[in-house]
What we know:
With 303 residues, the chain is of the alpha/beta class. The chain has ten helices and ten strands. It has two domains: 11-194 and 292-300, 3-Layer(aba) Sandwich (Rossmann fold); 207-289, no CATH class.
Amino acid sequence: MTAPAAYQVSHLDALEAESIxxxxxxxxxxxxxxxxxxxxxxxxxxxxxxxxAFAPANIPFPVMHVDTGHNFPEVLEYRxxxxxxxxxxxxxxxxxxxxxxxxxxxxxxxxxxxIQTPVLLDAVEKHRFDALFGGARRDEExxxxxxxxxxxxxxxxxxxxxxxxxxxxxxYNGRHHPGESIRVFPLSNWTELDVWHYIAxxxxxxxxxxxxxxxxxxxxxxxxxxxxEFFRPRAGEERFKAQVRYRTVGDASCTAAVRSDADTVExxxxxxxxxxxxxxxxxxxxxxxxxxxMEDRKREGYF
Length: 303
């Protein structure tokens, strides 16, 4: 008698199943979850996972974009189109509106990533969200590498790295008091390469800036920044055109591009497989403010 063939699950299927389990766990435990959706590749993948987690029903929570006002137009167009296609409820927490009301002030460096935090926390309090899905991954950055899948935030939205809950196997603790919340990261165990393999497998459309295109840029601190209304060259900096793409999407004033000829998903996968620098390490000026820039922001309540 022939033994039955062993049941095997691919690496991507295992990651997908884990992420779907996390999303279902949140909806079962929490009252008012929301998915943070910027139009970036990680939040786009989370949307696909949410579709699968709750099909054939609609996604049972809204999506929220903390909008700095310093956006790439391709990404905003994608965000609005995708929200309309899926019939989602989009909440926009606006940094420009917060500036006008006096909730926050412009930082001296022109970057708005740090002042997103008070705007995010204000929206959490206003809508009484108790769980926020984020697209952070542990391979991106060292502060994110040590954060739990269910990341507890106190009544001020702050994260304490020394006060994290144990996560054994698939046991997640979402217990919290009124005013406290949980940040949930379903993609914690994914890598950038996993994300791109999943995008290829699922044939997920992305904003065009993720693929190679010609753009006017300047070089600053070893990174290529697009010249636009939010980012202007300093004296002595030379503008030039280059073939580039974006590995990550954020505030246009602090997100750099990389030289690339990868204009298809397959070529991007080859490129990512060969790189030895994470996308945030290679392209995010806001992470270079200090050695602990990301952890400092997360302690204040950042994503």
